[in-house]
Structures are given as C-alpha cells and as structure tokens.
Design goal:
Elements (H helix, E strand, L loop, with lengths): L6 E5 L4 H12 L3 E6 L10 E4 L8 H11 L3 E6 L15 H28 L3 E6 L12 H21 L4 E8 L10 H7 L7 H13 L6 E4 L6 E2 L23
Parallel strand pairs: 1-2, 1-4, 2-3, 4-5, 5-6, 6-7
Antiparallel strand pairs: 7-8
Helix pairs in contact: 1-6, 3-4
Length: 253
C-alpha cells in the first residue's frame, strides 16, 4: 500500500506500541489520527481524539471526525489493550473482568464494525489489530488476558475472508513481551533474568509489514532476534466420513 497522503487511525496511540506505529506510519507519509484517553505527545498526531474506544457509542463519531477532518481512513491500527491484576482466577473481580474484556475485545469488535462500512465506501483499506503471542498459545501468567487475545485472533481469522470482496484486509500482530508501561515493574524483573524484551519499534515494524502485505487474515508473530513473519496455523483434523474426507463446511448465508 502506498501510504503517502493516506490517513491512519490508531487506538491507544499516545504511548508504547501505538505511538511507535504512528511515528513509523508518519515516516511513510501518512496522516495520523490518535484515539486514546490520553493526548499523544506534541507533534505525534495530526488529529487527537480523547475518547473511550471501548464505548460502542463513541465509534461513529470517531470515524466521522477522522474522515471529515483528515479524509477517508485507509489504515486502522486497533491497538489499545490492558492486562489483568492477578493470575489467580478466584481473585478476579467482576470489575476487572469487564475492564479487560471491554478494552481488549469489545473495542476491537466495535472498531471493526464501524470501520468496515466507511472503508468499503472509500475503496477499501487495511485493519491491523494488536493481539499477542498469548493469542497463539497458552500464557499461564495471565489467563484472562490470554482469553482476550485468543478472541481477537479468532475474529481476525474468521472475519477476514468476508471482507475481501470489500477490498478490506484484516491482520493481527502477535508480539511477545514488549517493554511498555503495560508490564510496569515486571520489565526490570525480566531484564534481571536475562529475558529479551521487544521494543515498541519492533512491533511497529511488524504492523508496517502487515499493512504492506497483500494477504489477509494473517497473524504476524514478533519475537526478539527474529524477523516478523506470519504464523503457520496447523489445520484441524477433518472428517473421515466416506465421500467427505477432509471436507470443509460450506459458508451458509
């Protein structure tokens, strides 16, 4: 995708991965709109919207403001996310569960739901969601966070084929542990143990690769010392019923 003059919307774009992605997209010539509860640093965005991206009622206005003030959205990076406070399921409060679900899952669903018709009216685009390696495997350190990232990966893989006819590509980036405020004091513990951390810029580079890639429905893993690449999901076992060996279910409309 040629990004010169195009408009990119980033949720959670005021810090960490979102901020790094905005800077990388701007280097490629894009105009940047940030939707976040906090304002981005000066000069980091052409348009800053202080808004709760997990609120479904906020999304029509987010998209309308970006389109009216900057132009059609060609790229969206749905990046806002949080972790939970405890790994113990019996310590999980209702409020904490609702918080992580609404930010990590609801904001992606509501964002995609609103972006798709807008992008479709303007010739298409690409949406990249920040998932996690925890969306590709188990992560005992935070099982509910893991749940949310599996949900996001499932949405990307299930929805992407439906969007191809509208010229909209949908991807996920799945980084390992990134040195951002999200991991707080845990960063130093990991460094002391010799565990390699990703930088936000590492993930931003993977987002760029997903944006520029021709495919759709792909999950790009990001790990220290590796080039970002698409994760090869193993196919699930198919039926062995005579005459229907390996048959996939038809799309029922």
């Amino acid at each position: 995708m040629e990004l010169q003059g195009k408009v990119a919307l980033i949720t959670g774009g005021s810090s960490g991965i979102g901020l790094a992605t905005g800077r990388r997209l701007r280097e490629a010539g894009a105009q940047i709109a940030v939707a976040d509860l906090r304002p981005p640093p000066d000069g980091a965005a052409d348009l800053a919207l202080q808004v709760d991206v997990a609120d479904p009622s906020a999304w029509p206005d987010i998209v309308d403001q970006v389109v009216q003030r900057l132009g059609p959205i060609a790229v969206a990076h749905l990046n806002a996310g949080v972790t939970t406070a405890s790994m113990a399921i019996d310590e999980l409060t209702d409020a904490e569960y609702r918080r992580v679900m609404r930010i990590n899952v609801d904001h992606v669903v509501f964002g995609v739901r609103t972006l798709v018709p807008s992008m479709g009216r303007h010739g298409g685009g690409v949406i990249v969601v920040t998932a996690s390696l925890a969306g590709l495997t188990g992560f005992a350190q935070d099982p509910v966070y893991t749940l949310t990232k599996h949900a996001v990966v499932g949405l990307v893989r299930g929805l992407a084929p439906q969007l191809e006819s509208r010229h909209i590509r949908l991807h996920a980036v799945c980084p390992g542990i990134v040195d951002t405020p999200l991991i707080a004091d845990g960063a130093q513990t990991l460094r002391d143990a010799g565990f390699p951390l990703l930088s936000p810029g590492d993930v931003a580079e993977a987002v760029m690769r997903a944006v520029e890639h021709d495919g759709t429905g792909e999950c790009w893993y990001v790990q220290p010392g590796r080039e970002p690449a698409t994760f090869a999901f193993r196919n699930v076992p198919g039926p062995r019923t005579p005459g229907a060996e390996g048959m996939r279910p038809p799309l029922i409309v």
